[in-house]
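G.,

No rush on this.
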Amino acid sequence: MPVKADSRSHNSQHMYNPSVSGGNVSSVAGSRLFVYEVKGLRQNAETDKINTPIRKSGSVFITVPYNRMNQEMQRITRLGGEIVGIRSVSESNGQSPPAATAKQDTGKSMTQATPKAKKDIPVNLYKPKAPFVGKVISNEPLVAEGGSGIVQHIKIDLSGGDYRYLEGQSAGIIPEGTDDKGKPHKLRLYSIASTQHGDDMNDKTVSLCVRELEYKDPETGETVYGTCSSYLCHIEPGADVKVTGPVGKEMLLPDDEDATIIMLATGTGIAPFRAYLWRMFKDVEREANPDYQFKGKAWLIFGVPYSANILYKEELEEIQAKYPDNFELTYAISREQQNAEGGKMYIQNRVAENAARIWELVQDPKTHTYMCGLKGMEDGIDAALSAEAEKNGANWEDFRKQMKKEHRWHVETY
């Protein structure tokens, strides 16, 4: 599965108190000046307009009038900066900075008491020339009777190595054997379907969700099977398997426990979302991750051909039953449900039905949207959201680009 080129996957977005941003301030307060101490500003065309020298490290000091404080905070956040201190330029008039906006120069960010350490993102710990050789623990079917195709949940033992990964990354698999030129097969990438602790919570396994690729050769009419997907779907427990990676920074979850996470999946595109949902809601995961106790909202819109193809159905519905206020589950079952026009119900139809709500949610800087599955899903989803953006006097393409810049629009399709 082609993983997009690495880019930073998320950016700490802070919500600011809108009452701070001018409007009701008196002329005295409005004329007061504050100095923001900012770290981490990126050098780019936008920052070139700031009259303050940008340094590669250290702090930048920006003077802001009281009634521009909120707008300036948001602009600094958009530029990747972090406000580490705010002080009044002059406190000789006896006024102290407004409590809603500023702490005195404590050296701490206003929005969080102690900045979190940068997330350690493991990438390419094992390369194709020296892969990690794991052992298959189990290979379980995920399609119920009456469904189409073969999809398997494959758990691989990583003991004895240093293979670590985060939710949303992908693993490379090198199938056994050689191609028709006698060369070893090239690796294929698969989204990881387990949390960083693995299905057994021992940090020693990785799980994949793999569909056997099967199609008719247009010239010969013969059925052709995907090299790596067939190898994995029929692999026996106990067999060795060559694993590379992990790769990918595009699909990582934000650290924010109050985030809204919208997930759009087709078929095996459910893999990273299974990892997210387990991390958010499974009891054993919540116990293992005291620093991540999800309190936000997760919404999965999942497109499949038949009910029997709803992968991980029981587990998804169990989470929905246990956390009805935090997890919403919406299916688009193309061969069994009809859209408003009487045609098949695809994921883009569900997005269109819910477009007003999705549009409202994505206005919030705490909302992250993830899309994983077949490339064909993108155009229909864009069309549905374009129509909604237009109703609101906005251009979807521009808005989507802005979300991408803010690291809250994440796409991995194949």
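When you get to it, here's the other one too:
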Amino acid sequence: MEHITLLIGIVIVTALVFDFTNGFHDTANAMATTISTGALRPKTAVAMSAVLNLVGAFLSVEVAKTISGGIIDEASGIRPEVIFAGLVGAIVWNLVTWLAGLPSSSSHALFGGLIGATLVSVGTHGVHGEAVVMKVLIPAVAAPFVAGLASMAATRLTYRLARGRDEADTAKGYRAGQIASAALVSLAHGTNDAQKTMGVITLALITGGVVAPHADPPLWVIASAGLAIALGTYLGGWRIIRTMGKGITDIQPPQGFAAQTGAAATILASSHLGFALSTTQVCSGSVMGSGLGRKGGVVRWSTAGRMVAAWALTLPAAGAVAAGAAFLAGQGTWGVAAVAVLALGVCGAIWAASRRKPIDHTNVNEGPAAEPVGVVTAALRAVSPPPAGHPAPAVETPAVDAPADAPVPAQAAATDTPTTTAPRAQAATVTR
């Protein structure tokens, strides 16, 4: 066995940086609903999630095996610089979607980066197409629907069981259940996402001849990957937490409990089977399912549409960045250095842009601007009005011009929805 070279060392460090970005990018998966309903304080929530991510990293290595020897053929001439380029593509896409507050898939960013870099460096024979379809693409399509349907059914069952009971008493119980289910999601996230970085580091060690092909990740790899994702989780991806907790639907404690329980069951089952699915897509699908499961609850489809678009772009976008990085890194030592410098410059620019409108634990629960009523939203509210005691969240109707002294209609005065827009000199009055 050879010693770890400087290039392999760079790959290992880059993989841990990706693991760190994965941590703060995916904190929302476990804690967004818990924070948005007030079940836990923001800093307490991310601290608990970080600890359980670390614990989960030690529970299984099945997903790591899928990464290190399932998707990419390590015997096809894969070199450490190829893995480095793939990681750069994944990190850049993670940071771009974090800046936009979109809960895209860190897992698919990693897969796309590795696939794009491999295609440029060694060709199509370096990628196991069947494994990509069976263990990446099919779970990517199926998992959000499965989790969403499970969450929708659980939400309806939850509200039915609590029918006629005091809302304040049931809310306390559901908040306690949310804490338990959030802990389970965090543990499940560690068993799935932390292993992906383990698999990448193990793949780099295999290509460098440090460990034998098809070997399990060494203990130090498991520990370092678990620590990196835990640290990223503790820092909190507040932008994405806001989107998932407040931007998709208005979540009540029973919905949060149902969504997190359904997501945890899906993730743990996939980890056991070795499916490296996107925990982000699972948790986002669960949140949408909880919105549809509550009578009167409405999903903000514009936000959901942007999320789905990001999901569809993740594999090709990360792959394209990684392909360019692989081409440059393939030119030699100067190419690897150039990729590193460019990556640092892009990451620095994204961080600087995020400081213009910072989001942290102090303002994470400030909801997004009201969304105009669309055809789907109006139809859902028409056939499924909110139950007594649960008024529908206020949304803005398309504005129409009206004279400054026009009276507010009686119907509008009795609701939270303004129906006219007065000139700037006089603000529209909404009676609450």
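The longest helix spans residues 167-207. The chain has one domain: 6-354.

Enjoy the weekend,
O.
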